[in-house]
Amino acid sequence: MADERDFAILSHLRKDPFMSYENLGRAVWLSGRAVKTRLEALEKNKILTSLQAVPAAQVFRRQPRLFFFERRASPEKLNGAVELDPVVFATVDVNRSAAVLLYHRPGAPVLPRRLGALLGGASSEATPLYPHPRRELAKPVPLAELKVLRMLVLDLRIPLREISEATGLTQRVAKKARRRLVDDGLLQVQPIFQSARSSGILMYELHVHSSEPSVLSRLREGVPRSMFVNQWESGAIILSCWADSIQEVYEVEARLRREPGVGGVQVKFHARTVLATRRLSSWIDEEISQSENGRLSD
To answer: 190 partner at 20 to 30 Å CA-CA among 54, 91, 169, 274?
Structure first.
């Protein structure tokens, strides 16, 4: 049976994905073994699919854009969307509406024609301000961080020893590079949840819109059972939440709609999420190659 302590563990992991099980346990008053057992149970019960490292678009000199589609999307169409460059991930709700995140190059069409042909016209779009809030980086990502980033995309919790062996970096250098990636907003830890009810827990997202930053700031702290928050430039926050029943979800939604200054509230139940891991890895390989070639030419 999942409980609030499980989601406290995930909240800590999102802020510091490299915490040991022992340190995680101390943060939530459990043993390290108990923390590991709980995370394994979340995966076994299909509440948590994976903890995924998603690099910021700015690492690749690209811009993030999130599109929402109302046309019903089948699992086949969702998988087809992820096969299209520059899609990073795609998710479909229980009502079959889809959301797709793209990292597009400046000057390229923001919504690729093939994606529109597959999913129809987008009903809305937004620019995420996470994990890196600015449009571009002040300087290129160092080679050591790129090498570590590639390993983390494949396995977020990979031991430092294995990173060192695969990259040729010392464990000390790899640890510093790993820390800087998080501190500089160059990667986001994305827990991949499924919304199907399991072990008495119902996972869902709340998309809350307001033109008043103070309203969104207040709501960030006041929503019960909210594990983490993401921000959009268009005056919206996404709260990842859990509940014991669909009635509880509706009560939270109704309360937020009554909040002064709130312009809209949407509830999302994710049924399936697909990440383009191979595409992200290939982009990192390109950045590593350019960085190494640049060093050779200096």
So the answer is: 169
Verify that 174 and 32 share a domain, yes or no: no
| Cβ atoms within 10 Å, residue 37 | 13
167 plus 219 within the same structural domain: no
In the predicted structure, residue 59 carries a pLDDT above the cut 60: yes
What span, in angstroms and rounded, lies between the C-alpha atoms of 37 and 245? 25
pTM for the full model? 0.87
Nearest to 209 by CA among 251, 240, 238: 238
- Percent of the chain residues past pLDDT 70, beyond the cut: 95
CB contact at 8 A, 256 and 239: no
Q: Are 231 and 128 in contact (CB under 8 A)?
A: yes
Are residues 47 and 2 in contact, defined by beta-carbon separation less than 8 angstroms? yes
* Containing structural domain, residue 222: 198-268
CA atoms within 13 Å, Cβ hemisphere of 189: 22
